[in-house]
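Sequence and structure are no longer studied apart. To make this concrete, we show below a single chain and its fold as tokens.
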Amino acid sequence: MDISDTPARSAPRNSASPLFQRSELNGGPVEAEDFGALALFNYGHFTSMQVSDGRVRGLDLHMDRLKSATRELFATSLDVDRVRNWMRSIVDAEPGTFSLRVTVFSRAMRREATAEPALIDVLTTIAPPRGGDKTPMRLKSFRYERALPHVKHVGTFALFHHRRLAQREGFGDALFVDSQNRVSEASVWNIGFFDGSRVVWPNAPALKGISMQLLDEGLRSRGIKRASVNIGRAELGNYRSAFLTNSSCPVRPIAAIDGVDFVVDHDFTALLEESYAANPCQQI
């Protein structure tokens, strides 16, 4: 199994959409029907990053994520040098700051025979940069566990559905707890807590986000205590502060979860932001 050499055909650029600016498939142009495998047979994985002047924090972590998930979902290796060239190609065509998403899927995979070898495809997409809203968030908890939580796969329906349910009740987003009432992650975020002396990450099964890893490394390098422990929903009140992190917004304070309020500590938020920024940017 290998990456398909067949590029897609050209499509008009849709710069009016905030979610889409330009895409390339296997390093070539793409046409609308080439998205069919993703739209109608929703199987694959991706990673998203913020790019500034061709540089990305945690680029090596993003590439490791793509390699690992390709091996797990498609039982094949990913030519990361080739993929990186495709990333560089679309980045060079759009200098400045923007979001880059790399999606691995297969137009050739047959839904009746998913275990059969099939060529994989790589879709690179750039879009306007996503703003890092730092307004403290209020979360509503739901009992929900993602399939293959350690993989950033394209099955995102439940994530946005739970966000919608939370927002209908006046909250900003959804927090997930597992069958044992352990906190795991938020809809498209990792979550962290501060007990007054250390940063605590939930250890229930969840996606190990790139920004979370960068934050943890930055905290480690500054000598800040960290821990990974079970956090039950009933134990949320034991923590002084809480925050969200993802590739679009590395640090966003949490004001409350359900009926539990947290201290929005600007000095602590600044510490987290400095710890994230301590990680060097890497050239694509």
